[in-house]
Protein 1
Amino acid sequence: MKGKQAAVRFIFITILIDVIGIGIIIPIIPDLIQELTDVDNATAAWYGGLLAATYATMQFIFAPILGGLSDAYGRRNLLLISLFGLGLDYLVIVFAPTLAWLFVARIISGICGSSLTVANAYIADISDAKERAKNFGMIGMAFGLGFIVGPTLGGLLGAFGTRVPFMVAAAMALLNWLYGYFVVPESLAAEDRRAFNWKRANPIGTFKVIFSNKIIVPLVLSLFFVYIASHATQSNWSFYTKEKFEWSALQIGLSLGFVGVMVALVQGVLLGRVVAKIGEVKAVYLGFGFYAIGMLLLGLVSSPWMVYAVIIPYALGGFAGPSLQSLMTGQTAKNAQGELQGGLTNMMMLTAIIGPPLMTGIFGYFTHPEQEVYFPGAPFILGALLCVLSIAIASRALQALKPRV
């Protein structure tokens, strides 16, 4: 038990430091793009969407390879490679002289992958059925805490220059890599490993494996549309709040810090209790409902204080993801967990190829100076509709699973 708890703590710290490094740069991205290109906010948002899609395209190709390799050779080495690549990505941005170099940095980061794929498989390795949702929720809590510290710190550091947050992010990522090198244990026993297979470790092969499990197909599809919806927030927040309320990098960072507080409370404190009381299936319904309401209201807010009020129901949507992921994990063999997590991450990256250009494109269209209809909240309305669609798609599968949860 103590060994498992130590492993969960390690993954928690790993993801926490990663997300601090990611969150630290978000408030400054609009200013950095405009510094390199001298364009308006609407056009900068479009570039931001393309940068995110570039990163996601590389992850779409390489995430299942990491998942398959971790099933064959263990989680540790793949986790360390991911962490080192993140540090290199930030260093390239620090010295980037043109917008093209930002794309180079995103390509490097995407190829090296993300620690999330292997971290999810690591959690699946060490968790029994009763602990899965709680442990996956700890990853969500790490994201929340990381977004408390990261964006706030990024907003503060941005006052000293647009490159300073990236310097700090690089240092944190590389320190995390060193920490993992000396501390991380292996979670996948030799007898539970399986040979690497190129047919499974590619985007198409991974989707074939996921979609061959008919029980989880509707759940995967529902996640697909929720992930696309999430980019109304993830890809647009800095540009949206700068456009609508003229927020500075610090104000953007503080608002994202509040999002982090709420996500941490929901997934780290409330999730386990809610799942224990109502079950994973009802927790999924509850989470999807809150997501839809939160998205709708974010698109309609008219004052800065309303943003903070609406973040609360939006964060409560965090009941859905870990619960849904736990349900799918419970329907998958132990020696296929890495492939499942790699496939889910790859699906998330596919939505991250589609979502950012879609949502920032809609934002740019409705905020462009020459556009007659001005409505910066349009991406959030689309996001709310996609959340409702996700509920409808998942409903039948969740009802079938209800007797087992």
Protein 2
Amino acid sequence: MSFSAQLLALPQWLAVFLLVAIAVSFSIVGFLIVHRFIPVQVRQIHNDVAGFVFATLGVTYGVLLAFVVIVVWQQYYDAEENVANESSTALVLYKNIVAYPDETASNAMQDGFLGYIRQAVGKKDTLRADQSFEGQEADINQLLSLIDNIVPDSEHEQILYTQILQNLNDLVKYRSLRHQAAHEELPSAIWLALIVGAVVTIGFTFLFGTENVWAHIVMMSLLAALIAVVIYVVIEMDHPATGVVNIGFPNSYSSILEIAKAPK
């Protein structure tokens, strides 16, 4: 299990506290080491130049953080939209199957589709844990084979049959996109840039010289805490199927099972 997955398995407040504690501890320990070996008077001499360089460095890292946050937020939004589309498509598909004039074919399609729905609802927690889609894949393939073998006998049946095929294809598409969103992560190169950028940005503050050491420590700690919180946001948004903030599960699946159980 990756560090991100382990972090998201924790309560949100504890995960944020852990990241903040790591960043703040690094800033304090690193500063005390530099403070011990490089006197304040020596560092004060270079404050003007260091301030100019730090401003450029801070803007560069800030732009990188903003870019990454926008990217992961857009990916999360798209994944959430796909789940909503999957939910509405599943409900429409079930209604079209029930409305199919041929009762024998309709019942067969209902049994196959409800089997897929039960499999999906029964394993929705497992999906978030290990991303296992194999059982549902078998059910959806079986339903596709069943529908392919149906031959409409009238124009009305042909219209509904075409709509059912379209709905099923859309359902498979949105389900695959949900599966893909659960697996996608930021490239390692971006994570490398984020971590190295955070270390360099925080570490650069060690080189400033201030008479009040405690004020220096407080300012560095606040900067480190802010960076840690933003990185947590990136981790949370980069894993839309896990954590406190997640895309959830298609709501209509449970509704379809309730409709199927209701007396006709």
Protein 3
Amino acid sequence: MPAGTQKDYYAILGVDRDAKPEEIKKAFRRLARKYHPDVNPNNKYAEEKFKGISEAYEILSDEKKRKIYDQYGFYADNIPPGGYPPGYQPGAGPAAGARDFDFSGFDFSDLGGEAAKGGGFGGTFRDIFSQIFSHGGGEAQREGPERGSDLEHHMRLRFWDAVRGTQVRFTASRNEACPTCGGTGSAGGKQVTCTTCNGTGKSARQVGAMRFSMTCPDCHGTGKRKQPCPACRGSGFFRRPETFDVRIPAGVDTGSRVRVAGKGNSGANGGPPGDLYIVTEVEPHPLFERKGDNIYIKVPVTVTEAAMGAKIDVPTLDGPTTIRIPPSTESGQKLRLRGKGAPSLRGNVRGDQFVEVQIVVPKIADERSKEILRELARLNPDDPRKDLLKRGERR
């Protein structure tokens, strides 16, 4: 962790300082699913959030690191034996044995390409340092319009609403641009001392026995920042709930992502808002089983129907329909109904429905029925197991 920066890891994960390990782990998993880069591609805000919660979990999930963090308010790998002296503040000076490296005046833009290829990093020297230190040493923050981050919410749907489509009333909490500063976070042209670097224009980060001094990522080395907006306290946003109608298209399934354009967080500095993604979870149906766009159903038939063939009515998504059971149908055999499956999200087509035949053997109680079955056995003497024992012999 940077020696010049103190972070509230408990606040980052949203847990109390006396939280148990399982509570910390649960909070990390919840936030990791929300801000993971795979779920939020090309989203800088989510990427930084994911880095922050990963760093917080790395410290708080380790008993020794957490103890050091609770004692000093930060963690470093090279805390001297016996700990820091009383009154020590991170950033007041390097830890014992630490070496200072000042990179704030260097431009690594000319060391990309060939220099990076030699180490197999696949990026510029500047990007390498940015990845190692999580912040600072990378590109300066953009002050122009910036698109808002996307939001993701989960929604549970009934089977029929998912198949046929529906419209739901949905409430989402989203960041809206502060009306006072227009989302800039600044109160105007007046500048104040940067609180991140205390006006020095540099921020420190300590990795092992090395202490790096780099350009402050918040003031970009000037030591000054515009005075924060008093209404939003410099964040540029207000967190507010908004209720609106969402159209769920026919054919969504568990894991489908429904995009609602412009309903994500507001952009910074006049940038456009992000989008809202609703991830659906569909409740199971007691009769129909869905696999992709296909529907599967198990239908019982009698021995007579299976042996002689018959026409029976079966349920489908569109209502009952008549199908033909071919003679000599076996239990477990599947019959296909084309175009009777669920609607596809990829176009104006539908999947198929598969009817699995399950032969139901009757309960024989009277002598007349038993005699008929004996007669049937005499007329059809074939043994269905005649080759079974031979195939099971060891060779």
